[in-house]
Amino acid sequence: MDKYAGYVAVVYVVTFVLLGAYLAWMWLRLRALREEDRE
């Protein structure tokens, strides 16, 4: 069981990092689009 606990933890960390990076990228894109609309 402990042998897999490390893999599970790594998978969770990678998944959350990818999700956070995707959300941050989407937020930056939306902010850039709104700034373009203002000009």
Automatic annotation (TrEMBL):
One GO cellular component term noted in the UniProt record for this chain? plasma membrane
Topological category with respect to the lipid bilayer:
Single-pass membrane protein
- Biological process, per Gene Ontology: cytochrome complex assembly; heme transport
Where is this gene product found?
Cell inner membrane
InterPro entries xrefs: Haem_export_protD_CcmD
Positions of transmembrane segments? 6-28
Q: What keywords were assigned to this record?
A: Cell inner membrane, Cell membrane, Cytochrome c-type biogenesis, Membrane, Transmembrane, Transmembrane helix, Transport
Q: Which family does it belong to?
A: Belongs to the CcmD/CycX/HelD family.
What does the UniProt function comment say about this protein?
A: Required for the export of heme to the periplasm for the biogenesis of c-type cytochromes.
- From the Swiss-Prot or TrEMBL record, give the protein name: Heme exporter protein D
Q: What organism, scientifically named, is this protein from?
A: Deinococcus phoenicis
